[in-house]
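Table S4 entry, CHAD domain-containing protein.
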Amino acid sequence: MTPDDRLSPHAAGLPPGGLPSAPVSLRSGGAGLPWDPPLRASQLPLRPSFGERLRVELLLAIMTARAALADQRLPLAVRLGRARPRLQQARLLLKVCRDGLGPAHAPRAARLKLASKALKLLADGAGLALVGLVGDAEPLSPEDDRQLAGLDALLRRCEVDAVTLAPGLIDAVGAAEAFARARRQSHRRAARAFAARSPEICRKWLKALRRQAVLAGLLVAEWPEPGAAPAARAPHPVDPPPAHLLQAHAEDLARYLKVDALYRRLCAQRANGAVPLASPEAVRIERKALWRRLRQREARLARMAAPLP
């Protein structure tokens, strides 16, 4: 061993780099040194409360929506399509803590609702002087940029609302009750969608379940063991049905509507004495098979959306 080796930190039993310039401990987030005193139970890092975790999710949703809207490399329609679901997620997270926040909830919810409605108008191709420019590859005019800058300022104010949210006012039990109400509302909408055979409402229901999945994860983390939450206030998380199942249902529904219209038209031609272009019996068989397939899939989706106890 050379003299230089005897003076090396490794030979002296010190960490690489020698003595630290400041004491490092687990309490300060460092890796800890062998001579650190053991931590007491009161000094251990506390588990974030439900309100703190919900505030982080709320802030993350708003920041993601703002970043997606500001990405000028993408067309406007793509930016709006990425920002809108995140704002809807933020509105749901803020909705479940309405009872605990009290008067502080109304202005925050109003600003989020205003931003969400503005994005919806933009996506529909109207409002904020962007008529006809949704999905256009041409650069936006200075007036359009000014309107988008105003929307960005509103989202920045929503970020401030999320940062200044008092997590101590957010109760996990109250959030679980609000979440259960949102779940029941989604199931009622799903039942109406199946009754009306509307693929658009089915897609909206799937999006609502995806938004609720984040909140369900927070509630399950709050009560990880079954029965830990009050029986009447359990979160009851649910997995959304596969996207390909709803897509196949929408395609079969569109096909059934076309075949049904063709069958009625052929029957009307035969009733008027004209020779139909196709056999109504063959069309009727296909129509009946599609109807049976739709009913079976609707029953399967209805079982996935069973009412909450």
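The chain has three domains: 47-169, 171-241, 244-299.
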